[in-house]
Write a structure and sequence with these properties.
Helices cover 42% and strands 23% of the residues. The protein contains five helices and five strands. A five-stranded parallel β-sheet has the order 2-1-3-4-5, sandwiched between helices.
Length: 113
């Protein structure tokens, strides 16, 4: 059985590195992108088993990424990362088509699970 593939879309280099290393140690094959457009292209190219996307991106937010994936009839599970102070994040995430919302700061074990 091959390792599950995940695309991580995060603009912050430190968080991207943390997620990339942690997910690899958790047994995932990880591909990364630092913008919404690059992330969408990577998802379409690789057909991953899961997408992990920050809501704060330089070109389009994570909600727009989730909406675009769902508009393309993608059924890939999508988890969005939102800041703790964003009180509307949960509703916005699910309305955009995300399957899960993780709040920063997060525990790496949560993300891997």
């Amino acid at each position: 059985m091959s390792a599950p593939r995940v695309v991580v879309i995060v603009h912050d280099d430190w968080i991207l590195h943390l997620l990339q290393e942690g997910l690899r140690e958790g047994g995932f094959v990880v591909s990364t992108a630092s913008s919404g457009d690059d992330g969408l292209a990577r998802v379409r190219e690789l057909a991953p088993d899961c997408v992990l996307c920050d809501v704060s991106l330089p070109d389009k937010d994570g909600y727009a990424v989730a909406t675009a994936l769902r508009a393309g009839a993608s059924i890939v599970p999508i988890a969005l990362l939102a800041p703790e102070e964003d009180s509307n994040a949960r509703t916005a995430a699910f309305e955009a088509g995300a399957d899960a919302l993780l709040i920063r700061p997060f525990r790496l074990e949560e993300v891997i699970a």
